Amino acid sequence: MVVGGGAAGTLVATRLLDESARRHLPMRVAIVESRDSIGRGVAYSATDRRHTLNVPASKMSAYPEDADHFLRWLAAHGREVGEYDFVPRRWYGEYLEDVLGIATRRATAADLHVVQDRVIDIERVGTRCRVFLASGTELAPADGVVLALGHLGIGTEWAPSSLRDSSRFIADPWPPGVLETVDDDQDVLCVGAGLTMVDVVAALDRPGRAIHVASRTGHLPRRHADELLPVMEAPEFSSDAPGLAELRAVMASHLGKAKRRYGNWRPAVDSIRAITPKLWDGLGADDRVEFMARDARAWDAARHRIPPAGAELVAAARDAGRLVSVTGEVVGATESSSGIAVELTDGTVRTVGAVVNCTGPCDRPERSADAFVGALLQRGLVRPGPLGIGFDTCQDGRVLDRSGESSAAVFTLGALRKGSLWESTAMPEIRVQAAELARCLVGPAVTNPVRPRDQYGLVVSTTADAADMWRQALDRIRRVQSGGPELLAAAVEVDPAFALGHAALALLARECEAEVDALGSLSAAVDALRLRADPREISFVRMVEARLTQTTAEGDRELLRHVREYPTDCLAVSVALPTIAFSGVAQPLEDAWHLVDVLAPAYGDDWWFNSLVAFTRQEQDRFAEADAFAGRALDADPAAGHAAHARAHVTYETGDHGAGLAWLDAWIAEHGDDTNHRAHYAWHAALHEIAMDDVDAALRRYHSQLAPPFVTGARALVDSVSLLWRLRMLGVPVGVDDVRPALAAVDRCVFDRPATLFTALHAAIGLAAVGDLGALGRLESFAADHENRSFAIAVVPLCRGLSAVAGGRPADAVGPLAALRVMGLRRFGGSAAQQEVVEETLLHVLVASGRQPEAAALIGERHARRGSPLDASRLVALKR
Questions:
Q1: What DSSP assignment string belongs to 678-718?
Q2: Rounded to whole angstroms, what are the CA distances from 340 to 166, 172, 214?
Q3: Which pTM value belongs to this model?
């Protein structure tokens, strides 16, 4: 039984029906809603096109595992919008109604009943509930009741009785037509300056009318950015339960980091959204009270922003003098035939034709005027949450009764959990809660022990022998070891109808150049789907098909959809994230970091995923945390290649070169023969040797571990050639003939038409190393004309700078290379250690151009951040 048919209730019903369809489980779902439509509620019943969503369309999917679902629905209904468009709310109401309809048709074993009525009381009988309606009807006892009330009614406790009793007081601005009762020639007072006020202004603003906005702070809402901003990593706290003082200090620092990095504070505010419930739970009672008194309004203003169009509408009214913001609360009101005179705490009196309550909904059950909420409190079925906000709940959404015991039958979600979670009022939280609540209500799925499964419990539709080879292949891929494609090839030979095996081979051919007929394997996978496959395997094959046959953007979109729907599909996750083995989807690093955090709950303390977290944390400069995750992974599996890679980065970026080199050499000696990226670990060891001012050791390592025939293909360019170039920049006599063999091991098309900025960076270095100025010029022209403007922005100055270096004109190289460093080398992708080759080149040309003070400043900056014997000796030499 779902009480309430707004967004929250509709999503709960939808997810229950989805569970029924997925498990072929008979189920009866009832929604009780007093309105004549489902999915709209108060928020999405708006008919005015100026009443838009307050977040971009790309963040409003009903399914957290399918981020583009709403965008696809809009496109399918002839509404082509961008991912950062703020669409009319009524469209979203139509979308939710359609989502429920599709789920209903798909769940053939379930029955959905919509009852247009109002619940007035609930009585718990054992583990079930009796539900009583305003019409006098009693519904059949329900095994579970979900209180999807949206909110606790309109809050008017702030208004003096003289105002509440006035006919000119609009307590609730949302009923259809209520704002139309205000005469066009009358002024209006809005009490409250939040999101509701913006909607009221949109409806009432017109020439000749003054709209007064009274609030405790006098501040108008903050606006959204004008474009989609990057997803920023969450800040790092000293513990899972930092106090309010630490929260304030860390967030102030985090806001500063966002402003420096993006020129915008908003990514920092948004970055803690996922961890807000944990932070709120960790605050003591006194800290919570202080937060509510001193910080809550500022936080809400920063978190709950208005779309640019709404902000411009408010600004236009303010600039024209039609909107006046005042600081003060209402203390009295006197009604007359011509209007109502409202007295504020600042002593002023505003005479208007109507006063509109824009303070938002009531959030405290004991103040609610809703009779049903009063009945729940009187029966003791619920109790107020922390600070008296919402209902008190368990982690799974079960309400706590008057005595603090959880009910086996009564749940809630959304705004009613704000006291327990704080961040619980917006769609990203509600959709997750709805999915989790549905699974909780239905109970765990009964698995079939006969069907083979992988390491994470996912079905593998094949024979026992082929499934065992599949698991072995996944283990080798997770450890960054060789042999994965060979095991998969053996698996499909044992079972030619193994669709997942064929698709995985096709994927590895595309992503890491496995010697496989990619399209032939894809065709075999599609054919095998007709014989046997479960939904996850079907989704995997379709994702691989998109990555092989559609555009990069479409392939990335399908991969992310699949990963969100099946977060423990470790092969798909491996491909989605940039690591030593895979380049990841074409996204900002911050998006990859965010994806790791989203997927983490599905893995717990899994050694492989800890390896990925370790690599992510070092990219975020959270080195202690990265090393801890790497250590846990290596303790569980000493051959964990991703963890070893993360530790190599940590020791380098923290200046722990001696210990890092010793550990890495020992790991390579024990596990290097099994890895298919041995050269990259050797490259990391050589960087340690260079940092320790032992370039001779690095050169010896090149000849013994990084020179052809030990290394071929992309690694020969990215690791071998780049190392030789670094050594040359440090004064080691590395000649053209030393570089040519490594370049010869690389496919020529890499230099002519590099697919990524990262590849272009290393292609340019390779061409400069052999003095091929003509090829550098062609690469520059290719970049200048590339459809991706980042190529022109980054690769063109790189080619110009390297051409000057190779042509013996170091002074001419300083400008473009210095500009690249200022612009930010992260644009090239890869790690900071890999991007550092540009900085080393800049240092070389500064010294060669006689600009020693600038070189010393650059080295000093780096040495302060990450000390090394090499930089220490260079600083001494430069300051002589």
A1: HHHHHHHHHHHHHHTT-HHHHHHHIIIIISTTS--THHIII
A2: 8, 18, 15
A3: 0.59
